[in-house]
Amino acid sequence: MARAGIEGRVQLRNSLLGFNKTAKTTIRKNAVEDALVAGIIAKNVGQNTIATTPSDLSIEPKDNRIWTGAMYDAYDADVTQRGNIITVKWGWLKKKKKYFDIQEHGGTVETRRGTVEVSAMHALTNSAMAVEKHLKDKGIK
After folding, report:
1. pLDDT of residue 119
2. Measured between alpha carbons, how far is 127 from 45 in angstroms, rounded to an integer?
């Protein structure tokens, strides 16, 4: 009888350890998937902001900030994992131009018509708010 009790405890311990390992793997996998979705959301929201924020630079009313498509196309997201740390980055990660910064944060631009004040479009901020909401909804801080 004593032997059956020991075997029972060993089986229970092994079962709990296996459950713990499975739970950790599932949590890690879900966190990576949620981070990938967050990256997709960040890119989509940023590009949508570029595509829907009226331009201050156009002579004619223009309901977006797309002229050549360079700023829109360069807006991207990246997800990396190092150990237990998952990082989501978004914005103009590979291609940065001064005018992206002026469009994002606002500022003055010299044009043929003279100095034009450019209002901020807030693509980075809009992406951040969408990512924070997504992660909060998933229970991730």
Report:
1. 96
2. 5
Question: pTM of the entire structure?
Answer: 0.81
In terms of C-beta density within 10 A (0-12 exposed, 13-18 middle, 19 or more buried), how is residue 122 classed? middle
Cβ pair 65, 118 in contact under 8 A: no
Phi/psi for 91 (5° steps) reads 125, -150
Write out residues in the chain with pLDDT < 70, as ranges. Answer: 1-9, 12-28
Q: What is the pLDDT of residues 24-56, one digit of tens each?
A: 655 667 788 999 999 999 999 999 999 999 999
Paired sense of beta strands 85-92 and 75-82, if any: antiparallel
Q: What is d(CA 31, CA 5) in angstroms, rounded to the nearest whole number?
A: 39
Task: Give the separation between CA 74 and CA 61, rounded to whole angstroms.
Answer: 24
Using H for helix, E for strand and C for coil, what is the string for 43-112?
HHHHHHHHHHCCCCCCCCCCCCCCCCCHHHHHEEEEEEEECCEEEEEEEECCCCCHHHHHHHHCEEEEEC
